[in-house]
Each structure stands twice: as C-alpha cells, then as structure tokens.
Amino acid sequence: MGIKNNDINEIIVPKKNNMSSKPNFYEHNKLIRKARKNKSKLDSTDMALLNVLLNDASMPAAEISKKLSKQGIDITERGTRKRIIALEKHGIIRSHTIVIDDSFAGRNINRIILVKFKNTKDFVHKLEKYKKYLNASPYCTFAIRIRGDLDWLHYKSFPTKDIADREDDVFRELFGDVMQEYRSYDAEVIKQNFFQILDENSISSYLNKINPDDYTCCFYDLLFTVKEQLKKIPFLHV
Q1: Which residues touch 104 (CB under 8 Å, ≥6 apart)?
Q2: What are the CA-CA distances from residue 155 to residues 14, 141, 201 (Å)?
Q3: Residue numbers in the chain where pLDDT is lower than 70
Q4: Is residue 236 a part of any domain in this protein?
C-alpha cells in the first residue's frame, strides 16, 4: 500500500482545529522507514522536495518551501527542514555535492567504449581484473554491463586527446586477449541528468502530452527552401 499524500501533509501543517500546533515528525519518520523497508514510493511532497534539491542542493529551506507552495504543496520552512533531516537520516539523501562545468573538470575529450568478450582461459579471473580497472580509473565516469550482442559499455572523459589515446592503448594491451570486439567513439554530451527522479505518473503524463508534429521535420518545407535558394544561382534552373 502506498503512502497517501495527505498522510504527511497533515503532519507537517496541522489543521487549525487541532488541539496541538506542534507537528508530529515522529509519524513522518515512521512513514519513511516503512517506504524504505517495503521499497515503496515516498509521498508526493517528499518527491517534490527531492526534485528541488537535485537542481540546487544548497537552496535554503525557506526558498524550497516557496517553490513547493507554487506547486500546490502547503509546507512550512520548519516542516521542509525536518523532512530533509528525516530523508538524510534514513539514507534517502546520501550526500550533498556540486556540479562542475566540464571544461573546468578536465572533461574535454569524452569517449564511449563498446566491448564484446570472447571465451578464453581464466576468463572469470580476467573479468574481475577488468572490473577492478574500471572501478579504480578516475576517468571512467560510468560502466554498464549489457545483455545482448555486446557485453560492456564505458563512458570515459579526459583532459586531452593525447591522454585519451594513451589510455586507449593501455586498455587494449591489458585486456585485448579477452576482447572479441572493441569500439571507441568520441562523444559530445547533449544532456546529462543522471540524478533525476523517475516517477511513473509524471512520465506517463509527459508522454501523453507529446505532439509528434513538434518533433517531425517537414521535408517539403525544407525542399521548397532549397529550391528557392537554387533559383538565385544564375546558371541553375530548378
């Protein structure tokens, strides 16, 4: 059973006819523990609060309260602060960090690596060394094991092309005997949002609002524009 939205909102902002105006934050902690234990969803207020913090973890509680209020969530500054403390206590919020511009973080060259293994002697032992290398290397942003035609995907970032090429040579020298295919692609990051909260209802709502016409290139309009430009060239007639 999921946690109803009103269960916690009434705890944080008591009704005026309540005998006590002191918020019962014990109940909020109890609901978070239940959600974590059962791997169920947090209530909508916690989810909205986390989304705000993901965009700016340094935002003061008073500002967060105002932002949530614009979303129709009635919560006080004190209630916001207590919720953050509870989410930290129960491991929902593990840490607060910063996001650095890639050009200052040494991520000037980005590469995606695709690997397909082959069966060799002592493969399991070699695979453990492979994973150890990826975990220890500071330039490997993430590594994903794939089920399908390929076995692994890595994303690596380097300050210069020379260092990227050097690492490429070292990597193939170390693990070339277990790799059947090795593909390396220079990559340009268009969007990076690994820490976004994925909510089934919000995704479904977004998909329902998508208008295919907004993402379709009109070929005939493009062709007409090209023809008009060609007509301006004296020796061409379209």
Answers
A1: none
A2: 49, 6, 30
A3: 1-41, 102-103, 194-195, 215-238
A4: no
- Count Cβ atoms below 10 Å from residue 47 Cβ, excluding itself: 15
CA 126 – CA 130 distance, rounded (Å) = 6
H or E element that contains 178: none
The answer to the question of residue 96 being in a domain is no
CATH number at residue 178: 3.30.70.100
Examine residue 95 and state whether it is found in any structural domain, yes or no.
no
Cβ-count burial 156-179 (b if 16+ within 10 Å, e if not): bbbeeeeebeebbeebeeebeebb
Nearest to 164 by CA among 140, 130, 181: 140
Number of domains in the chain: 3
Share above pLDDT 70 across residues of the chain, in percent, rounded to a whole number:
71
The reply to whether the predicted model has a pTM over 0.85 is no
**Angle, CA 76 vertex, CA 56 and CA 47 arms, to 5°:** 50
Domain that holds residue 219: 200-231
Residues sharing a CB contact under 8 Å with residue 4, sequence separation 6 or more, in sequence order: 43
Quickly count: other Cβ atoms within 10 Å of residue 187's Cβ: 14
CA distance 41 to 178: 42
25 lies in some domain: yes
Same domain, residue pair 114 and 52? no
Q: Crossing angle of helices 77-89/25-37, nearest 10°?
A: 40
